[in-house]
Specification:
2 domains; four-stranded antiparallel beta sheet; 4 strands
């Protein structure tokens, strides 16, 4: 079963927006019998097309009412420097996403903290203490009119 057939594409689009939809409702919306729909979803899970399901949390409920994207430049372009930085970001509960990117920076982070004072502490006490970090550019999120992340 291909992940790129029309029925699977519809299943994936719906599940990306509504991960808790019942199999019966999903089957009706994609025009399949419930058993055929369930078999397709299970195959999509087994194949890795569906990696998992998660709740979309309100940042304020998890202590993260202040969101910033942070561009990070490293002093060394070595695997060791990257791994050290990635370990530090994995250990930080404030870093919700860490992406290794191309361009003039090496990493783009999404950071959620309660407020600007907490961000200042994260900036100084976490990012500011890493020897491989040379540049930090912060972009503060003022509003998110579209956010499809689950």
């Amino acid at each position: 079963m291909s992940a790129n057939d029309p029925a699977n594409d519809r299943i994936l689009r719906i599940l990306a927006r509504e991960g808790r939809i019942s199999n019966l409702d999903l089957a009706q919306r994609v025009g399949l019998s419930p058993s055929a729909c369930l078999r397709r979803v299970q195959e999509l899970e087994r194949s890795g097309a569906i990696r998992g399901y998660r709740a979309q949390l309100a940042p304020e409920a998890t202590g993260g009412g202040f969101t910033a994207y942070v561009a990070i430049g490293l002093s060394e372009h070595t695997k060791a420097a990257q791994l050290a930085f990635e370990r530090a970001m994995a250990a930080s509960p404030h870093v919700r996403e860490c992406h290794n990117v191309t361009g003039v920076i090496e990493y783009l982070l999404r950071v959620e903290v309660p407020d600007i004072a907490a961000y200042k502490r994260f900036h100084a006490e976490t990012l500011g203490t890493l020897p491989q970090v040379t540049t930090i550019t912060t972009y503060i999120v003022m509003d998110s009119p579209k956010d499809d992340r689950a």
